[in-house]
Specification:
Radius of gyration: 20 Å
Distance between the termini: 69 Å
Helix content: 55-70%
Number of helices: 10
Number of strands: 0
Protein name: Paraneoplastic antigen Ma1-like
Organism: Holothuria leucospilota
């Protein structure tokens, strides 16, 4: 009995910690123009999905509540209709339903083609390229073209294919302990760290010249 209580206390502690780190998203209604305290769709969904990635230990019931509390009609009405149709609908279906109503008109196949043809642009940092791939992947998942568990592997593979201006960074990534399919946050942090190290080395070289 005591063991169970200790385990529950630890879980509650982790949840309350996540709750303290919770940043409530701005409102989204789907109306145009958006009110002063509201975001338009792309801004709102990018913010919410980034936070969902941080809420990996938060129960889906709580994630659904957080999404609902950031919505206003008519967007809130769409979720209300979904709840009536399927009271157990997960948060991923909430976002998919909103995507259908307010998101990109590009098909899932079109987004996939854009993803597979994505390359680092001249002057674009590798970390910025990772973030751009992630935005595309989020849209692809919302369109139902890719399962969430496959995202890490596809992101890493396309990143390695698409980096054109930093071969040394790719070499360092392969030598690191990231593994073949790191999640977005781990990959982004590692890439940024390597970029910072490269910038420092360049600075030291310029001082020696």
């Amino acid at each position: 009995m005591q063991r169970l209580k200790t385990k529950d206390t630890a879980a509650d502690s982790h949840y309350h910690c996540s709750n303290r780190n919770y940043r409530k998203p701005r409102y989204f209604s789907g109306r145009l123009p958006a009110a002063k305290d509201e975001d338009e769709w792309e801004t709102w969904i990018d913010q919410v999905e980034a936070q969902v990635e941080e809420w990996d230990e938060v129960p889906d019931k709580e994630i659904r509540r957080r999404i609902r509390e950031s919505l206003r009609s008519p967007a809130l009405d769409i979720i209300g209709d979904l709840k009536k149709e399927d009271p157990a609908a997960p948060s991923s279906r909430y976002l998919a339903a909103l995507e259908m109503a307010f998101g990109s008109t590009d098909s899932g196949e079109e987004l996939l083609m854009r993803f597979y043809s994505s390359e680092q642009k001249e002057g674009e940092k590798a970390s910025e390229f990772v973030a751009r791939l992630q935005q595309l992947l989020r849209k692809i998942v919302r369109k139902g073209e890719m399962r969430g568990e496959r995202v890490n592997a596809f992101r890493m593979k396309q990143f390695q294919r698409g980096v054109l201006y930093n071969d040394n960074l790719l070499t360092q990534l392969k030598m690191s302990d990231l593994g073949e399919s790191p999640n977005y946050v781990c990959l982004l942090n590692k890439v940024r760290k390597i970029e910072e190290e490269q910038t420092l080395k360049k600075g030291k070289r310029s001082l020696l010249v």
